[in-house]
Amino acid sequence: MLNLQRLAIFVAVVDAGSFTAAAVTLGQTKAVVSFNVKQLENELGVSLLARSTRRLSLTDAGARFYQRSLQLLQEAENALDDVRRDHRGLSGVLRITSTPEYGARTVVPALAAFSQLHPRLRIQHVSSSYHADLIAERFDVAIRLGQLADSSHRAALLDSFAILPVASPAYLARRPIDSLPQLALAQWIAHSRLSSPLSWQVITPQRQAVLFKVEGAAMLMGDSAAALLAFALHGAGVALLPEWLVRADIAAGRLCLLLPDHQFPAQSIYALYPNTRHVPEKVRAFIDFLRERAARGE
């Protein structure tokens, strides 16, 4: 039977990059750390780490075992959290990741309210425009917007939102836009991480679905919705952005909604979580909490 403490020591060595650094992190001696990793290799009958005088690296077997160790340790921690749970609420650590923009506007306020219900639960939120590896980076839940790519993780649909073409009054004073052909010829600001950032299915006022494609390449590109918004506010061109992000700027007149009688495809909001045999109560509770807030329009 595998020793979970040895798994934790092995993972600490990989994360720290050396036995010495792992010993400092764990508060143990280097000899104890080295002994436990060696015993783990003996029990498995394979070498997990390739050792040299200059660096430490994973063998092929070690790389596979490292990923499995992360899953086993997470499942053990989830089981302990659920056993410890009592009438005082959830406990342990809940790690959430989302994009910075949606995180600041929706996820963080939800986490603040959720923490009030479960004061013994320690919450960590990480803002990132990049899609993190939930297992390797030990996230319990990732909030994803848009079309969901194929994934080995479980996904819970939370809500959906409209995306709107917008531009500043200064830009429109130079280049008015009153039709789809004019919109296709505009100076576009595109999201660099989308596979097809300048092509969408659009519903016309006659309720017809047409393929809208921008003529030519994007004039400007950014890797976040915040960057696209800033470009648009400064009169750089047209951007397609979430309604919840541009609502206030449209209301204040800083941005103009283009072709309001046309509909661009709605985008979905998902909660992704690791596909483990045991879904921890803290994950189920937080996803239910987000769904309830979405249903109330929060």
Explain what the structure shows.
It is a single chain. This protein is an alpha/beta fold and 298 residues long. The chain is 41% helix and 22% strand. It has a 5-stranded mixed beta sheet with strand order 4-3-5-14-6. The radius of gyration is 24 Å and the shape is elongated. The two termini are 48 Å apart. The model has no long low-confidence stretch (mean pLDDT 87). Belongs to the LysR transcriptional regulatory family. InterPro entries: LysR-type_TF_proteobact-type (IPR058163), LysR_HTH_N (IPR000847), LysR_subst-bd (IPR005119), WH-like_DNA-bd_sf (IPR036388), WH_DNA-bd_sf (IPR036390). Pfam families: HTH_1, LysR_substrate.
What is the secondary structure topology, with strand pairs?
Layout: H1 4-16, H2 19-26, H3 30-44, E1 49-51, E2 56-58, H4 60-84, E3 92-98, H5 100-117, E4 121-127, E5 141-145, E6 154-161, E7 163-167, H6 169-174, H7 180-184, E8 189-191, E9 199-203, E10 209-213, E11 220-222, H8 225-233, E12 239-242, H9 243-251, E13 256-257, E14 267-273, H10 281-295
Parallel strand pairs: 3-4, 3-5, 8-11
Antiparallel strand pairs: 1-2, 5-14, 6-14, 7-12, 7-13, 9-10
Total strand count, please?
14
Strand content: 15-25%
- Determine and state the CATH class of the largest domain: Alpha Beta
CATH topology of the largest domain: D-Maltodextrin-Binding Protein, domain 2
Number of domains: 3
Structural class by secondary-structure content: alpha/beta
What global shape is seen?
elongated
Gap from first CA to last CA: 48 Å
Low-pLDDT stretches = none
Reported CATH architecture of the largest domain: 3-Layer(aba) Sandwich
Strand arrangement, major sheet: 4-3-5-14-6
Number of H- or I-type helical stretches: 10
Average predicted local confidence, pLDDT: 87
